[in-house]
Every structure is written in structure tokens, then in C-alpha cells.
């Protein structure tokens, strides 16, 4: 799939590179013509016919390249979106499994100095040696809030 995208022709990109190349050539020709003339009135034709149009072509080429790269990036994002949509499960059982709670343990833990209380298997406290059992006084007083990730049920002793 990727090789077919690499082989496709992007005319906006080619036009941008061509404009940049033509602009660079015109600027070099204009510089060469100006450098051979001693008087300013004899340098003006080179500026008007080569250097200024060359600079304009360079700017136009840069704009075309930026536009072409945006279009290429948008096509890639659209392709990835279609791949994601195709990968989504159609079965409702698979959707329910994705909505299952992240943590189901009944033990409640907190990190000293923290503001949340968690289930013991919550990814935010699982495996942390500093996690301690929740003091029910802190839960009742409102100093600790339930974790939004594991959504523990309030269990007071």
C-alpha cells in the first residue's frame, strides 16, 4: 500500500520544485548580469527582468511545496482514519469488553501527600511502594477525591 502511494505523481509538488529551480536560475542570471555592470542605470534591466521575477518564482515555489505537502499529509490522515474505522469491532460484546472497568480491586490506597484515593490495582498506584491504605477520616472529610481513572466506590468503615 505504501509503495503505491510513493509512485503516485503529485503535480503540485513538481510544480513547486520547478518554480524554485527556475527562480534560482533567474536570480543567478540576474546577479551575474548586475555584477558585470558598473553603473546603476545599466543594472536595472537585470533586476527587472531576472532577479525580481526569480525571487517571485522562489516564493511561489515555496507556497506550492507547502500546499502540496499539506495535501499529502491530509491524504495520509484520511487513510489512517479509514484503517481505524475498519479495525473497530462490529460485535457489541467486544465493545462491552472495552468499556470494562480498569481496576476492580476492593482495597483502597492513597499516596501520602496526594489528593486522590484509588483501587489497589489502579495503574496510578499499582506497584508503588509508597502507596498506603486510605484513612477513612480523609475520605469522609473530603480531603481526598476518588480517582477518575479507576473510579473507586466509596467504602467507609
Structural commentary:
This protein is an alpha+beta fold and 157 residues long. 59% of the residues lie in helices and 7% in strands. It contains five helices and four strands. A hairpin with a 5-residue loop joins strand 1 (108-110) and strand 2. The longest helix is centred in the middle third of the chain and has 48 residues, at 40-87. The radius of gyration is 33 Å and the shape is elongated.
The residue fraction in helices comes out at 55-70%
Shape: elongated
Number of helices: 5
* Distance separating the two termini: 60 Å
Question: Helix- and strand-based class?
Answer: alpha+beta
- pLDDT under 50 segments (min length 5)? none
Largest sheet: 4 strands, mixed
Query: DSSP strand (E) fraction?
Result: 5-15%
DSSP strand tally: 4
Q: How confident overall, as mean pLDDT?
A: 77
String of helices and strands: HHHHEEEHE
Strand order, sheet with most strands: 3-1-2-4
> How many discrete structural domains?
2
How big is the Rg? Answer: 33 Å
Transmembrane segments: 12-34, 46-66
Keywords: Membrane, Transmembrane, Transmembrane helix
Give a short overview:
With about 160 residues, this protein is α+β, with helices and mostly antiparallel strands. The chain has helices at about 1-5, 10-35, 40-85, 90-100, 135-140; strands at about 110, 115-120, 130-135, 145. It has five helices and four strands, in the order H-H-H-H-E-E-E-H-E.
Amino acid at each position: 500500500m505504501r509503495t503505491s502511494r510513493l509512485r503516485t505523481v503529485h503535480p503540485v509538488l513538481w510544480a513547486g520544485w520547478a518554480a524554485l529551480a527556475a527562480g534560482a536560475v533567474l536570480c543567478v542570471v540576474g546577479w551575474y548580469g548586475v555584477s558585470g555592470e558598473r553603473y546603476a542605470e545599466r543594472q536595472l534591466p537585470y533586476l527587472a527582468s531576472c532577479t525580481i521575477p526569480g525571487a517571485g518564482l522562489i516564493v511561489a515555489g515555496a507556497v506550492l511545496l507547502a500546499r502540496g505537502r499539506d495535501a499529502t499529509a491530509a491524504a495520509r490522515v484520511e487513510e489512517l482514519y479509514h484503517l481505524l474505522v475498519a479495525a473497530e469491532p462490529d460485535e457489541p460484546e467486544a465493545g462491552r469488553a472495552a468499556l470494562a472497568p480498569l481496576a476492580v480491586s476492593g482495597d483502597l490506597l492513597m499516596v501520602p501527600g496526594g489528593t486522590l484515593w484509588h483501587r489497589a490495582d489502579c495503574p496510578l498506584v499499582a506497584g508503588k511502594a509508597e502507596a498506603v491504605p486510605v484513612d477513612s477520616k480523609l475520605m469522609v472529610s473530603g480531603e481526598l477525591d476518588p480517582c477518575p481513572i479507576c473510579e473507586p466506590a466509596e467504602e467507609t468503615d
